[in-house]
Amino acid sequence: MKTQQYDINAVRSIDHHPAMRDLVDLLCHRTGNINRDFFQAEVAYFLSLVPSSMRTSINSPERGIIPVNTYSIALATSGFGKGYSVSLLEEIINDFRTEFSENIFPTIADKSLFDIAVDIAATKGTDENNEKAILESDFKKQGHAPFIFDSGTGPAVKQLRYKLLLSKIGAINFQMDEIGSNLQGNTEVINILLELYDLGRVKTKLVKNTNENERGLDLVGSTPANVLMFGTTSKLFDGSKTEDEFYSFLETGYARRCFFGMGKPEQFSASIDPKDVYNGLVSKNKNQILQSWKNKLASFADANFYNKTIDISEEVGIELVAYRLFCERLANEMPEHEVIRKAEISHRYFKAMKLAGVYAFLDKSSEITMQNLHQALRVAEESGDSFQKLLKRERNFVRLAKYIADSSGTLTHADLVEDLPYYPSSTTPRREIMDLAMAWGVSNHVVIKKNVISGVDFFSGSTLQETDLKKLIFSFSDHFATGYQPEKQSLDNLPKLLTAPGMHWCNHHFNDNHRSDDNIIEGFNMLVVDVDGTIPLEDVHDLMEEYTYITATTKRHTEECNRFRLILPSNYNLSLDKEDYRDFMKSFLLWLPFESDDAAEQRSKKWMTNENSQVTVHRGTSLIDVLPFIPKTKKNSEYVNSVADLGNLDHLERWFLNNMDIGNRNNNLLKFAMMLHDAGMGYDELSHKVKSLNDRSVSPLKKEEVEMTVLKSVAQKG
Q1: How far is CA 317 from CA 61, 234, 350, 485, in A?
Q2: Annotation: CATH topology of 396-463
Q3: Is the dihedral angle over the CA atoms 18, 19, 25, 29 positive or is it negative?
Q4: What confidence tens digit (pLDDT) does each residue in 162-195 have?
Q5: Rounded Cα gap, residues 374 and 598, in angstroms
Q6: Which residues contact 395 (CB under 8 A, 6 or more apart)?
Q7: 58, 148, 389, 489: most buried, per Cβ within 10 A?
Q8: What is the pTM of this model?
Q9: Do 674 and 715 touch, CB atoms closer than 8 A?
Q10: Is the separation of the CB atoms in 226 and 172 below 8 Å?
């Protein structure tokens, strides 16, 4: 039998329930946000308070009698309007809450105590009035039953539940603000609420019975619980114990039980008219919607709505099962290690069924309609989208890298331990997280430098900006020292500079346009070196074919002795001080496959133009990667060590050895051999150098292959 595909797109396109739509619209309007997910999680919780307090339940042929209740986790950045939106929703349900607490609850509770007393009296053969008096005394001893509470202890929650079991009305409503600050202080409460979600039941703890502390009746029943935990993402995801605790709760069961909402405040233009904003906030239409739902929810504080049971028809039940199977298929396709995601997806149907019960109650319907179910499924799907965002938390080493990059000045281990709760205080884990941060930075435009002074580690960092070939940095003047005009020009425009008569130019800008190292404005994106007869120009073109470059011959260039300038745009804009620039250029010059003028190590180095220059502009597949050359970085240390290991090789040999990857070894050896041959090297010396280079490669070719291919080709050339 062919598996029927569930049309999830149809669910995602259905209109929200009017209560969800109107209240979320109101919150978005009042807070100035267009992100709805955060508010949907809040509204789902507040709407659920009404039917669950009135002890509404769902009669599911598949699952039995299930209480209507909702758990929500809503997280947003600071300034989103979390507190304001919650206060507004509290105002909307306030009339219901007041009528319920002052009239409905005590009336139903009194009747419930009488009913229990009658049952006890019938069983024990005692007077029902005496039994009721005992129950009333026990009921009073349990204290006030708060409609909503924001913190507590495990025994207190169980005591509240016992009072609600006696009264047979009301719900346990836990509403915790600043989840990041309060999570660890309420772990006991949160664990009990985890157990209460499905059926409103929890195991009773056995305590010693004394005259001062008598055990109550062992009542069997259901007490629905609602949970809203909200707060800022920064406080919760602190990379330390609080964050670990939160994800532990998700894995334990809150992922499958909760609706999730992630919010981020909108960035508004400064040109918005304040009058328009004010008029929008005091809009009569929005005030009418607020009052309308306030009145409608208050109307449910009526004994006629107490203890309602909402049915699920066969058609709706089959649709719910189809959705469940669809979610389970998605979960089964996920990797086994994605435990939290699999749990959230495979159980969306259950929390959606409970929300559909809320919608049916608000519609005064005796059964969940197909529309109620689809409206609830849409919320569950959008909650799932928010949940995926929530799971994409940054690793601690990523946070560390970004923190160092965003910090001005240098930082020590002491600074990091004090500022970052997740930064280790012991040496080994500290070294591990720093190494990971540096490694992450290499591929994410972040550079972290480490400098050791008197045995103390100093760290600094920056976020690198990729080079725009239309904004290459240079300055030029007709004087060797003054009048250097700052420019940012396209690569294609540089030949105009290089062939201009009698001009001086640099790859930096200067304060007051005066060329000196003290006046350097840090920031460059071109590397410039002079090559004076150490290699033919066409060989450089061949070797640097992969990269974007410009070559320009100098006035002393001849056919016999090639003298030229090589200009390589870098992949990043860099800002280096005098010492770091010198070390940077030393590393870069070691990387080149030929010798060049080491005067390039000076930041204020200038070059002369040549109106007769032969200029070649080549656009390769990549820009020169400068990360290995930046001093005091992990990648530079690795590069310097690798060069030291190859210290007895010349520039050309080192170049080919570093580029001899598996798959192009033969071609590289042949290119190396041909360059030696063109330089006039004898066959015997050439053969020795080729074989030696091959032996030093990571995966050398067989000796016979080198002789029959590379050396044979050289011999045939003569």
Answers
A1: 8, 41, 12, 76
A2: Arc Repressor Mutant, subunit A (1.10.10)
A3: positive
A4: 999 999 999 999 999 999 999 999 999 999 999 9
A5: 72
A6: 436, 440
A7: 58
A8: 0.72
A9: no
A10: yes
